[in-house]
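Replying to the earlier thread about multi-chain prediction with a worked example.

Input:
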Amino acid sequence: MQEAEKVKIDLALIHYPVVNKNQEIIGSAVTNLDLHDISRAARTYGVDSLYVVTPYSDQQELFQELLDHWLKGGGAEYNAMRGEALSLVHICDDLDQVLAEVTEKWQRKPTVLATCAREKHSVMWPYRLVRQKITGGECFLILFGTAWGLAQEVIAAGDGILPPITGSGNYNHLSVRSAAAIILDRLLGPREI
Amino acid sequence: MQEAEKVKIDLALIHYPVVNKNQEIIGSAVTNLDLHDISRAARTYGVDSLYVVTPYSDQQELFQELLDHWLKGGGAEYNAMRGEALSLVHICDDLDQVLAEVTEKWQRKPTVLATCAREKHSVMWPYRLVRQKITGGECFLILFGTAWGLAQEVIAAGDGILPPITGSGNYNHLSVRSAAAIILDRLLGPREI
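Result:
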């Protein structure tokens, strides 16, 4: 298969500011498997970069070690496919840094959409609309929250939200790994299934 | 929101027989996060049960401890949503036991579909077709492989396969957690996105 024309879509996985189960603002620890799973899904669907946002230098160092293992160390020999996915990962201090890098890369400001498990007071962008705009060459940065989700200030600072993923009932407690996979399939997967 | 009419769909996560990177048949270790992520997605989309298949009694005991923690122990107090998802999990020795339990539950034999990352010599069931049949009340058991995927003998013993999930290019190395989430959304998610 040939690679399709490059789409201008990036993801950011936010570790601060997010909320805990009591809706208090916290910084979360970076999770090994989040990076593997989300970068593999991102690579599958042609996403340009996965920005991992944490202000904590010890966490940044830990994750640089993980990336080095899979990109240059023993992991690269064991399974080159992991490195191919993790090469999409960039570690950033905060969302401002992500926005600056993305804007420089595409030479324009992206539309920033947050994701959340519940409806919020924000503009809702249907998946089919975002899908059309991506195909039309527009730039999007999609934000994912770890822990119990993005802090309201992050959601409010963006241009809107993607609709929460609901299934057949009232339970919608997907992991961020599962939510990211589903959202990428909805935005970038085949229309005919 | 009301719960939708019950669909007759079950998942099985197979730990033996699966293959390693050299396509040799192995038994894999049960992974904590597979159970959390896939059961949460299953619960979200109204799946009846997630059968975790491993013949190893030490693995079965380990995972019974994990289930007990979230269903009855400290985890149940900390986060009841995890137990609500993990209550869908049943541990089985092999696929024959799964088939017997599912057949007894629905009072008929399910259509058994395997999932794999590459096209195999098997009947391919398009997602839209399976979706229609699920809506029409038919029973399906969807098999997921851990490690590097289901052994060929498991794929051959079923009624067919679901199409591999491909994105924009030739990289399709999703985690089983991500693949399960995407497949559930394709089979059971909203048609209008």
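The beta strands of chain B are 9-14, 18-19, 25-26, 49-53, 89-92, 111-114, 140-145, 160-161.

Feel free to reuse this layout for your own posts.
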